[in-house]
């Protein structure tokens, strides 16, 4: 056999070994280089931290706006109760298993086609809300700022639609729609991440737990939920890989080899960002309520989240198996602030804090309830 033939055979055997190793790893793709994996996981960590950080600080303004609106209208804001928090993992389990069954019964292509249109609309709205303030600052003075008020009212006086917007908001909507069309047509991972980050920031900003006990119940329930569905079944992993929607952030491990056309992705679910994120945002609002000029509980828990996420990636890399991130994130995000509060003597104050405290029922309220009861009877 000639030297050239021997070289060809050797190269072929190396390729076969790489492919075999990839199949063993369950990826079906050539394993990523250490450099590529480091870039991918490092990018995922950064993309997880940014929405929590900025969403938490945006939640302070959203909370203030809610309180102001409540004072004006007298309406109570929507908030998650302890019962809601306890039921959430059960509802999420039913939804997850339902999606899994749907993927098993129906064609994945048709389901993802429907989901793509749905998340296109949600993504455009979420991104518009996120960038509208910044776009307004960047627009030149030649673009007029004209305010509009869209209102649709029933005969009984109830408002069905009451929406205010401006020409600058329309520009933001146009930009978001362009990105949405890019995602719709190409399903590019960058467009996916833009929508995923927009969902995450909006979620951390707008979803309020109201108090620490509710947060403990929610995170504790989802801690069990995540462990069960990842370790006990293939449901979570199957849905995550089949679900072609921006419900996860991804980054290619083969970016160095293939550039922007890379397709061997590492991923992190948005739930692993938003769920701990809304608890961390609650702690920031608690810090603000203490009026001490520091955000010690926020930064401690933010650092704990980072440590938990790094632990998740390390364990996943060592054991070559998908990991329930909340297994590591929940103990870090709950244990750190509670221990710190215990040491600093703030534990009672922390558990007493509420975003929107229940106001004691007045005599007039009791009379009104009694009158409503009589009318019903």
* Separation, N- and C-terminal Cα atoms: 100 Å
- Secondary-structure-derived class: mainly alpha
What's the gyration radius in Å?
25 Å
Q: How many β-strands, per DSSP?
A: 4
Task: Tell me roughly what share of residues is in helical segments.
Answer: over 70%
Largest sheet, in brief, is:
2 strands, antiparallel
Which residues sit in consecutive blocks of at least 5 with pLDDT less than 50? 8-28
Shape: globular
Work out the helix count: 14
Task: Describe the 3D structure.
Helix content is 72%, strand content 7%. It is mostly helical. It has a two-stranded antiparallel sheet with strand order 1-2. The chain has a two-stranded antiparallel sheet with strand order 3-4. Helix 4 runs antiparallel to helix 5, helix 10 runs antiparallel to helix 11 and helix 10 packs parallel to helix 12. It is globular and about 60 Å long. Residues 8-28 have low confidence and may be disordered.
């Amino acid at each position: 056999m000639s030297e050239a033939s021997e070289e060809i055979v050797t190269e072929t055997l190396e390729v076969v070994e790489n492919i075999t190793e990839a199949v063993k790893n369950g990826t079906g793709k050539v394993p990523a280089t250490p450099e590529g994996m480091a870039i991918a996981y490092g990018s995922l960590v950064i993309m997880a931290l940014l929405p929590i950080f900025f969403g938490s600080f945006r939640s302070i303004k959203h909370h203030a706006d809610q309180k102001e609106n409540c004072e004006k209208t007298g309406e109570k804001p929507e908030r998650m109760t302890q019962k809601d928090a306890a039921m959430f993992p059960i509802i999420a389990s039913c939804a997850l298993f339902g999606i899994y069954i749907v993927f098993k019964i129906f064609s994945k292509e048709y389901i993802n086609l429907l989901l793509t249109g749905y998340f296109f609309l949600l993504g455009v709205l979420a991104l518009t809300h996120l960038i509208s303030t910044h776009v307004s600052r960047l627009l030149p003075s030649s673009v007029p700022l004209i305010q509009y008020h869209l209102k649709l009212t029933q005969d009984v006086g109830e408002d069905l639609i009451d929406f205010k917007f401006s020409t600058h908001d329309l520009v933001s909507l146009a930009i978001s729609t362009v990105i949405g069309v890019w995602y719709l047509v190409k399903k590019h991972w960058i467009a996916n991440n833009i929508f995923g980050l927009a969902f995450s920031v909006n979620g951390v900003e707008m979803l309020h737990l109201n108090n620490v006990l509710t947060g403990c119940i929610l995170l504790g329930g989802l801690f069990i939920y995540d462990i069960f569905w990842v370790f006990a079944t293939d449901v979570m992993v199957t849905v995550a890989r089949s679900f072609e929607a921006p419900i996860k952030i991804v980054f290619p491990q083969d970016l160095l080899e293939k550039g922007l056309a890379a397709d061997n992705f590492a991923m992190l679910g948005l739930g692993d960002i938003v769920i701990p994120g809304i608890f961390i945002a609650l702690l920031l609002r608690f810090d603000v309520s203490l009026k001490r000029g520091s955000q010690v509980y926020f930064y401690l828990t933010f650092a704990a989240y980072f440590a938990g996420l790094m632990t998740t990636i390390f364990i996943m890399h060592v054991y070559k198996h998908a990991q329930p991130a909340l297994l590591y994130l929940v103990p870090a995000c709950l244990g750190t602030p509670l221990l710190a509060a215990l040491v600093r003597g703030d534990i009672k104050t922390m558990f007493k804090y509420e975003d929107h405290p229940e106001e004691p029922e007045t005599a007039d309220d009791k009379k009104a309830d009694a009158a409503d009861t009589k009318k019903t009877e």
